[in-house]
Amino acid sequence: MEDLSLDMIGFVAGLLAENAGEWALHKFILHGLGRAPDSIWHYHWCDHHRLSRRHAMLDPGYQTSPLHWNTHGKEVLLLLAIALPHLPLLAVAPGYVAGVYCALVAYYLRHRRAHRDPEWARRYLPWHWEHHLGTNPEANFCTTWPGCDWLMGTWKRTGISPSPPPTDHRYP
Ligand SMILES: [Zn+2]
Ligand SMILES: [Zn+2]
Predict the structure, then answer these.
(1) How many angstroms separate the Cα of 92 from the Cα of each of 3, 27, 77, 85, 98?
(2) 156: nearest Cα among 134, 138, 142, 140
(3) How many angstroms is it from 10 CA to the middle of ligand 2?
(4) How remote is the CA of residue 171 from the centroid of ligand 2, in Å?
(5) Ligand 1 centroid vs 86 CA: distance in angstroms?
(6) How far is the CA of 131 from the centre of ligand 1 (A)?
(7) What is the pTM of this model?
(8) Among the listed ranges 4-13, 79-88, 104-113, 156-165, which one has the minimum average pLDDT value?
(9) Residue 169 clears pLDDT 50, i.e. is over it
(10) Residue spans of alpha helices (H) in 25-165
């Protein structure tokens, strides 16, 4: 019984840790480091944001399998790189690892659906819809649910931009 309670606490901690990871990785790595044109993370701007903006949330890379060298493929690779180092922790903190894994799968499925089905994204992932189509892409960094954005003050209703700004440096 005690083990079960610990596993439950671990599971919730895993969900929260993944949400914090989504926020930090998106804000500091993909947006921060990725702003430099020669960064390996630059694809987030020049591929994912640019295509999502151009196609009103659709990113064609998510229409096919992740076995392509585009945002979809790189995202799956990144998720595996996060998941694999957690494997050894299964023996000591199975609840925590299960929480992280469930959250990673939920992230992948929700993000992929958002870029295949814009109407679904507008209705069920409005924070991510605004992240791409809103007037301020430096907000709403969580994708699955906006927990860490609420906590850190980056959850913002930014309003939808009337048209893509093609000369804007943020959408090269
Ligand atoms: Zn972004
Ligand atoms: Zn996205």
Answers:
(1) 11, 30, 25, 13, 12
(2) 140
(3) 28
(4) 14
(5) 25
(6) 7
(7) 0.91
(8) 156-165
(9) no
(10) 43, 50-54, 71-83, 94-114, 118-124, 126-133, 147-152
d(CA 128, ligand 2 centre) in Å:
7
**Sequence-separated (6 or more) residues with CB below 8 Å from residue 101:** 14, 83, 86
**How do the domains of the chain map onto residue ranges?**
2-152
Which two tokens mark 104?
């990673």
Cα 96 to ligand 1 centre (Å): 27
Q: How buried is 132 (Cβ within 10 angstroms: 0-12 exposed, 13-18 middle, 19+ buried)?
A: buried
Q: Comparing C-alpha atoms, which of 92, 90, 110, 85 is closest to residue 19?
A: 110
Q: What is the pLDDT of residues 30-43, one digit of tens each?
A: 999 999 999 999 99
**18: nearest Cα among 171, 170, 127, 143:** 143
User: Distance from the CA of 5 to the center of ligand 1, in angstroms?
Assistant: 36
Ligand 1 centre to CA of 149 (Å) is 13
